[in-house]
Design brief:
Shape: globular
CATH architecture: 6 Propeller
Helix content: under 10%
Number of domains: 1
Strand order of the largest sheet: 1-20-19-18
Largest sheet: 4 strands, antiparallel
């Protein structure tokens, strides 16, 4: 851990004082709601957002109301669960709202499915046809991320498929509910070594969320979570690193997608946040688009973390 501290300090310093960014970090707020395992978020209408809880009984579909202030920060918040009696044990990880059908599609890591739900939380019986290769993933390393825009869904696995080093970014057609094209994506190198990760109380690295922009470019979230083993003193070295990259698969002809770093930030023992959900929020009065990041606290992790939401403002041309 000691060898990581200089890097992390430099990372924090660089994030705050780099050249003029296209992303402004407006707020990271701990929500006054019951502890949970909220893993995905999508805007539905006005101040209403659909959220999936990856361990809740009855399917785990929630709705949040988030009232935004003029500066992009969040005011009042409320959350309630649907009572649709959905299937349990699928480990629902992400959700997108599809305006054309007025329905939700939810990616589930437990069975590598992407199913359609009505807004009352009930399954419609429709789902995307998943390529067989994408079902052959390592346990707990499947569909964390799901994005949608303009008739196209996008997903990838949290970790590369067994025996591979690159991620497979896969698109699907809304009209056919069938796979369309795939691309190769390269994640950054983890900062924690294999031996240190193996001895940690908790360690996760991979792609946890994606968001599609109106122009079909994608924002990809890579996140690393490290909680050292041992007692409270050792656990004070816990940290997360969240990196957001911009890609343009529809126009990128490279063998491996080119990516542009939008922002990278760090959370520590005092504000530890494992971000797994991401979606577009409201447009600010100055024309910038907000981006919301939602953390999975793992039911609060015995006080180690909380139900955090982070608001960013994008000025991407």
């Amino acid at each position: 851990m000691k060898k990581l501290l200089p890097f992390l300090l430099l990372l924090c310093w660089g994030s705050a004082f780099a050249q003029t960014p296209v992303v402004e970090h407006i707020q990271q707020r701990r929500l006054e709601i019951a502890p949970g395992q909220y893993s995905g978020i999508t805007h539905v209408a006005d101040d209403v957002y659909a959220v999936v809880h990856d361990k809740a009984p009855g399917g785990g579909l929630f709705f949040f109301t988030l009232q935004f202030l003029a500066d992009g920060s969040i005011g009042a918040v409320s959350a309630f669960e649907t009572d649709a009696g959905g299937a349990e044990g699928r480990d629902n990880e992400d959700v997108v709202f599809v305006p054309e059908t007025q329905t939700l599609f939810v990616s589930a890591e437990g069975d590598q499915s992407i199913r359609e739900y009505a807004l009352d939380g009930r399954e419609t019986g429709r789902s995307l046809r998943i390529p067989h290769a994408l079902k052959d993933c390592a346990p707990n390393a499947g569909f964390e991320a799901l994005a949608y825009a303009n008739g196209t869904f996008w997903t990838t696995t949290e970790s590369p498929l067994p025996g591979e080093t690159l991620y497979r970014l896969q698109s699907f057609s809304l009209r056919k509910l069938a796979p369309a094209k795939s691309w190769n994506y390269q994640a950054d190198t983890p900062t924690v070594g294999e031996a240190e990760a193996a001895s940690a109380a908790a360690y996760v690295f991979g792609i946890s969320a994606m968001t599609a922009l109106p122009d079909d470019r994608l924002i990809v979230m890579e996140r690393e979570v490290y909680v050292p083993g041992g007692g409270l003193f050792e656990m004070m070295g816990a940290f997360t690193i969240t990196s957001l990259f911009l890609i343009d698969p529809l126009h990128d002809k490279s063998k491996v997608l080119e990516k542009t770093l939008l922002t990278r930030f760090y959370t520590s023992f005092l504000n530890l946040a494992n971000f797994e959900g991401m979606c577009l929020g409201p447009t600010l009065p100055d024309g910038r688009q907000t981006l919301l990041l939602l953390a999975d606290s793992q039911d609060g992790s015995q006080g180690l973390t909380g139900e955090y939401i982070r608001v960013l403002a994008l000025d991407i041309r």
